[in-house]
Amino acid sequence: MACKIFDLSFVDKCRLVGPFIQLSFDNIALPFFSQKCGVNRANHLEGRSLAKTPRPRIAYLCDLDPRLSWTYSGGNKRICDTLQDHVGDVSILSNSWGHAEPLRRLMHKLPDAINLRARWRLHLAMAPIIARHVNAQLRANHYDVLFCAYSLQSLAGVMPPKHTATIFTSDATQTSYRTAETGAAFGSYFRPSRLLDPWVLRQEQRILQNTDLCLWPSDWQQENAQRCYGLATDKSVVLPWGANVPTPQIRPTPDFNNGIRLLFVGRDWWAKGGPLVLDVLRNLRDRGMAARLSVIGTTPPDTDLSDMIDVYPNLDKSVPDQLNIFQNLFHAAHFLVQPSLESYGFAFCEASGFGLPSLCLKIGGIPVWEGINGHAFSPDSSAEVFANQIAYYRDNANAYQTLRATSRTCYEAKLNWPAWAKSVDREIDKLLRLWTHNQNMTVAARAIAERKTLGHR
Questions:
Q1: What is the pTM of this model?
Q2: What region, left, alpha or beta, does residue 355 occupy, with left being phi > 0 and alpha being psi -120 to 50 degrees?
Q3: How far apart are CA 205 and CA 86, in angstroms?
Q4: Strand ranges of the sheet holding 236-238, from the earlier edge strand across to the other edge
Q5: Looking at the chain, which terminus has fewer C-beta neighbours within 10 angstroms, N or C?
Q6: DSSP helix/strand/coil, 264
Q7: 405-455 residue pLDDT tens
């Protein structure tokens, strides 16, 4: 029997081949002047201390265009938009490779499996050429901050002017991911590439040691970065990322008497733990519970449970009607069941926004805190462990209502982008103040030295 599939992919087929269409946008830095991202400076500064530094000028750097909503699961655009909306005046630097641009365009014509693995390695190898193009853009404008998201290799060979601070954020680096349980679980696509690992580590160490501040979305990334690169604690800060949906409205809790509704979100059925989710569904059904599963982002294989599964393989949250479907599925669900192997996971932030508890495995940097916005079970947990937890909450309405309330509170406190922006703004202000102080001290020291020299004449 087949799952019930709601295919909406006809809306925007071009997104499937987006990486191979337009990833180089002119050869200049682009001011971020979209209507959506425009911010009135007076409003931005309202309520701030008069001692607060002016709105910083930010150069945004990434290997993929942040104006495209699908890059890095939507995180790239969210980070860029949030910086412009709440933190500073953003200019998007060109991701062209300069004189090596033909090589980059050739890379994007290769199959995904090869492109994703070779692109960043080739970037590191070609850094002396590529960095010239970035450095020229930085010299052409006076930026306070160079903010690089996701693609650490984009900073290779880059030498910002002395007045420009460098900040990096990502949910993983190549080495930290490969050596952690998340990456190790998938093995190696091309084993000879392991010979390059020591060289890659040295390049990443050099880049991060020259970076002024690293922002990680969870403790897991920070700990891995310190393990792999020995980063100083004052250069490494944990600031959770937010949900990639508008702030959800609060709706009444779905009634368990109408059946148990489970939700699964992700493009990779296997990496996100799809087979275990099916086992959880089967376990609940075997107990006589009327359980159903909704799947967003992928199509599971045919199974004897297909009649109990609703599938939405292509939901584009930038299309209002499809966003509405996405939101309704979250509102109707009792649990997000996602035993995935990943470094973070925006779906967990989104679930918390809807007051939807998450059930997952305690692996990677997943933003689920035990008993607050869900439960993170040990990596070897069986479907029965998940089913037992679901059955407990079905039979304990007050406990379930409390979990939904604390899930929403968790979202409001830290799993939203304005909260991230407020923390980033504070860190940038602190960093720029320190730089100004150090520069003033240097100027003062020079003046004292000059006076002493004159005094000896």
A1: 0.84
A2: left
A3: 31
A4: 30-31, 89-92, 57-61, 145-149, 165-169, 213-216, 236-238
A5: C
A6: strand
A7: 999 999 999 999 999 999 999 999 999 888 776 666 555 555 554 555 555
